[in-house]
Amino acid sequence: MRQRKALKKTFTVVDDVTKHNMSLITKLSNDRKLNLARAYYFNGHVYGVTEDERRHRYDIDILDDDEESDAE
Fold first, then answer.
1. Mean pLDDT across the stretch 43-66?
2. Among 68, 65, 24, 64, CA closest to 44
3. How many domains does the chain have?
4. Would the pLDDT of 2 be above 90?
5. Roughly how many angstroms between the first and final C-alpha of the chain, as a whole number?
6. How many angstroms from the chain centroid is the CA of residue 38?
7. Which residues does 40 contact at the CB level (< 8 Å), separation at least 6?
8. In this predicted model, what pLDDT tens digit does every residue of 14-44 receive, in sequence order?
9. Can you say whether residue 47 is alpha, beta or left, with left for phi > 0 and alpha for psi between -120 and 50 degrees?
């Protein structure tokens, strides 16, 4: 019985989305060229899912590249 009670206890892990990751999700969601159905944050990474259900992982480096090209 003691083991059962121990197994029923639950806990929640919360992973905060950083400002840069939120900016990346917004940029991915608004970019029509990527043809993404949705973009989301999971387990410390940003993912995008295309219309044909393929999942891609994105890094914040994409934002840095775009900011450099905007400055030129």
1. 85
2. 24
3. 1
4. no
5. 68
6. 10
7. 25, 46, 47, 48, 49
8. 667 888 899 999 999 999 898 999 999 988 8
9. beta
